Batch of 2 targets.
Target 1
Amino acid sequence: EVQLVESGGGLVKPGGSLRLSCAASRFSFSHSDMNWVRQAPGKGLEWLSSIGSGSRHIYYADSVKGRFIISRDNAKNSLYLQMNSLRVEDTGVYYCVRNVAPVAGNFDIWGLGTVVTVSS
Amino acid sequence: QSALTQPASVSGSPGQSITISCTGTGSDVGGYNYVSWYQQHPGKAPKLIIFDVFNRPSGISHRFSGSKSGNTASLTVSGLQAEDEAVYFCSSYSSTTARLYVFGTGTTVTVL
């Protein structure tokens, strides 16, 4: 079964940093566009960032632009999210998600998520 | 606009049909046929149930159907079943500079 497994979440103070990882298996990761999507407690989904299969095309939501950096290592089937200058409002579950159709935004594979809590 | 607008809740009896609306703008829902729908059960990750407005991924029940008119997309669940009780989110490609994709506010479906 295709799988995405996130890790790296935890408790961090405002202004701190955290690096999330996502390990992919049983699908062609190196040919897939990947994304990070988060969900604040009891709230809806928010798209954060996308990276193309070859890392040439990278996009960010305004809410994280300049603070978060998305990257990938196709040799390791892994996706990353470096989160800096964290704010309380960055608290939530962070999902690693595959976009099966570039541009269209058909998010067909989701990880179980990793929890990030930003609190003093 | 920070998110696509969905009704907070919709309910129906088993066997009935319900429809969830998803309203955006010409920069997202109205401008592109790139609307998708997701089902999320409590404590679980979202699951893609409709893509490109009306297409169903393999394995998704024919009871789920999608459509779009102008800036509003809709998801219809026919023959409502207890297992359909979940939160449903729409999503669309967005041509604004603020984000590449925008999700809806989410709709809680209750099976009475």
Target 2
Amino acid sequence: DAGVTQSPTHLIKTRGQHVTLRCSPISGHKSVSWYQQVLGQGPQFIFQYYEKEERGRGNFPDRFSARQFPNYSSELNVNALLLGDSALYLCASSPYGTSGNTIYFGEGSWLTVV
Amino acid sequence: KQEVTQIPAALSVPEGENLVLNCSFTDSAIYNLQWFRQDPGKGLTSLLLIQSSQREQTSGRLNASLDKSSGRSTLYIAASQPGDSATYLCAVGSYDSGAGSYQLTFGKGTKLSVIP
């Protein structure tokens, strides 16, 4: 079975632009979470979606938004990009919202803002 | 607010040595704790998941322990190999039953180098 897949793998954007990152969870998984990992730091929680509803949001500005589609795939959108948004964006999936189970991460999308 | 600290930040050991990575957290009201491995430029691979009611988990050469009352977890790696070289991340899971939300709070990781 395919793991968590993310696209694009790398992208470069200019300050002020908008970016959309995509994630397909493991088949059968209904929960998708997004994390931001700045170089040298641990990942930070951005959003969790379960059954197409936002269930949790980390300490990120409103420029960050996400949604989950009927097939449980997800998009992360970031508006008005800042240099500080440069990071590895990780998507994770799990079968249920509570995740007493292992959570599985994708390979991430590397975003560079110039 | 949960804070997770990992010590040491970096560790270099000769092949074959046994080693311990440490993780501490400030809020003992955790749902579970996971250890992950991250290779350079890559995503995270789950190594071990310990539920809040458990004391330890083992997988192959890896053993993770959890002491909620003291806010500590350790990852023990036996007979280290060069292929174990990676960054190891500790992540504390918290669940908000009202919102139905689960999230991980990560430490900054321990970068391990195993020298042949």
